[in-house]
Design a protein that fits this description.
alpha+beta; single chain; five-stranded antiparallel β-sheet; Beta-Lactamase; 18 strands; 16 helices; Heat Shock Protein 90
Length: about 600
């Protein structure tokens, strides 16, 4: 057990910086004391602050309840004015009441969508602003109509619904809460019952709740005496079943604060009854929100503790930084060296031990840099030697076939042609050797490939034609030796050896800005993209057994080795469409190239 604890302690401190270790030692005691003080104060004030927050929530809910009561009182006064001021005193057989209806509607249209008067049989007597009922609509079947006639002494408020009974396109899709009451209609000497309807605009009721917040995650909703939702900020989600609400339980709560647990969440429910209707305004605050709100009252205590910890942290930080800053700077220098920048300066400062360590690391980095440069130079020299060895080799098949052509010409007394072949072969070998140089002039490289093409042209009995086009102004630029011959060789053996018609090889050289271009194109069989990729990968089957043995991959790598990664080959080819190879070299005069 003791050994396990010791290993954990060593792992913890060895994996942290010296500054962190010093800082931790100095801070732990002060932090423990601060936490004990905080816990004691928290427990002492927690209940008191929670009660204060609940009282604030109760006050806010009471204010919303009074706003709803005031809104309903205004609507009830409107209904009373319509009944006692207009309907009750009017003889409907002789008088028109549309004027008073319109006047009262205009004065209250911000809160009211429709005002209508119906007879006991459901006949529309008057309506503002609607003109008539929709066809096939029987208002006597409506809940608000039946409720008014069943309990004639009361005023009735319906649940929110879409008012669809009036034939008015502006109002037919509005959400409303219908206030209905029974009224007495006078026609001459007879009286009968009727129903007064006042449609309250649901949006005006929503405005009473908009922007009312009791805290993060808190909300307010409105229910009737049965617990049915009249307003809820997430009404659409509740209707779709994605969100649930404990509204039925809230209907049974008395006014005040109640603690409940709903769907695994503890929360505080504040209830306020609304007069005239039996409605209830319900405020919901998650218990953790109440705790967050209590931070306001504990802010002073937290601030004092934080200030003490901050001062201690500053002192500890200053002490630890004086000790560890030189080590930290040296660690940064080592980090730069680890990233591969061996030329970066190494920090040397602080105490004697740190300065000595910094000087040793700096000397070590310099020694590593020298060794790496030696390795790079040795590697490049080795690659150049391998390429030079490869380019000096001539495939025996080519030499054998050329000598066979010379023997055949001499036997057939074609001495002049034999002399041409021997001369071309001599030029070919002379330039191939080039006194061991890898960089030659464009003129010599073109002469070398011209000799090769002449020999192959005679060997294949004029099966293909060739043309070399280059201006005099590019002849003295530097070129890589044995660069074009492998490409021409590919064009002959892979492109045209098995084609039916006559082949054609074109070689163009030109200069653009600071770049020298060589283009080798043929009208041979062409290649697929996969075959082109094989040429660059150096696949065994991509090299010709009849040629020099120097593949496209080696030519491309030699160009990049001698001139840089931005130079090299680019091949474009399509089956039966021929092949074009573009070489990109720097336009450097031959006499400027170091030998």
């Amino acid at each position: 057990m003791k050994k396990g604890i010791e290993r954990l302690r060593q792992a913890f401190f060895f994996n942290n910086s010296i500054r962190s270790t010093i800082f931790i030692y100095f801070t732990v005691t002060a932090l423990a004391a601060g936490l004990l003080i905080s816990l004691s104060l928290y427990q002492r004030l927690s209940r008191q602050v929670t009660e204060v927050v609940q009282e604030e929530n109760q006050t806010l809910i009471d204010q919303v309840g009074r706003s709803v009561e005031s809104y309903l009182r205004t609507v009830i006064k409107l209904a009373d004015s319509l009944y006692y001021g207009t309907i009750k005193n009017a003889d409907l057989s002789e008088e028109l009441i549309s004027g008073p209806f319109t006047l009262l509607y205009d004065n209250n249209k911000d809160n009211v969508d429709n005002i209508a008067l119906f007879s006991e049989e459901g006949e529309l007597m008057e309506a503002v602003p609607a003109a008539r009922l929709k066809a096939n609509v029987d208002v006597t079947e409506e809940e608000w109509f039946q409720s008014a006639l069943e309990k004639m002494e009361n005023q009735h408020f319906s649940m929110p619904h879409v008012q669809y009974v009036f034939d008015n396109s502006e109002n037919q899709y509005h959400w409303v809460i219908s206030l209905s009451r029974a009224v007495e209609l006078t026609r001459g000497t007879s009286t009968s019952q009727g129903v007064l309807l006042v449609d309250l605009s649901y949006s005006s009721l929503e405005q009473l709740f908009d922007g009312v917040m009791t805290g993060k995650g808190s909300y307010i909703y409105l229910i009737n005496s049965n617990g049915d939702l009249i307003y809820h900020p997430k009404m659409q989600l509740i209707d779709s079943g994605r969100v649930r609400e404990n509204n039925l339980a809230a209907a049974s709560y008395k006014d005040g604060n109640h603690e409940e647990e709903f769907e695994g969440e503890k929360r505080i429910v504040t209830v306020k009854s609304v007069g005239y209707t039996g409605w209830k305004v319900v405020g919901v605050a998650p218990e953790n929100v109440v705790s967050l709100n209590t931070i306001k009252t504990r802010l002073f205590i937290v601030f004092i503790i934080a200030l003490i910890l901050f001062i201690l942290a500053l002192i500890n930080s200053y002490i630890s930084s004086k000790i560890t800053n030189p080590i930290k700077e040296l660690e940064k220098s080592v980090g730069v060296l680890e990233e591969g920048n061996l030329s970066a300066p190494v920090y040397i400062g602080g105490s004697y031990e740190i300065r000595h360590l910094g000087k040793s690391i700096s000397d070590m980095a310099a020694q590593i840099r020298i060794l790496m440069q030696d390795i790079v130079r040795e590697h490049e020299a080795k690659r150049k030697q391998e390429f030079d060895t490869l380019q000096s080799q001539i495939n025996p098949h080519f030499l054998y076939n050329t000598l066979d052509i010379i023997v055949w010409m001499i036997e057939n007394e074609q001495k002049a042609e034999a002399v041409k072949v021997v001369t071309a072969l001599a030029r070919f070998f002379r330039i191939s050797l080039s006194r061991g140089k890898s960089i030659i002039t464009v003129r010599d490289e073109l002469e070398h490939v011209r000799s090769y093409l002449m020999i192959q042209h005679m060997r294949f009995k004029n099966k293909f034609s060739y043309e070399i086009r280059a201006n005099e102004d590019v002849m003295e630029f530097a070129s890589l030796k044995l660069m074009l011959q492998p490409l021409v060789e590919n064009a002959i053996y892979h492109g045209m050896e098995y084609m039916d018609g006559d082949g054609e090889i074109l070689l163009d050289v030109w200069k653009e800005a600071d770049v020298l271009f060589f283009k080798v194109s043929d009208n041979g069989l062409g290649m697929t993209q996969e075959q082109v990729s094989q040429l660059f990968s150096g696949a065994p089957h991509a090299a010709s057994k009849k040629g020099s043995g120097i593949g496209v991959k080696n030519v491309n790598e030699r160009i990049k080795l001698y001139f840089g990664e931005e130079y090299g080959l680019k091949i474009e080819s399509e089956p039966d469409e021929g092949t074009t190879v573009l070489i990109r070299l720097p336009a450097v005069p031959y006499d400027k190239v170091p030998t």
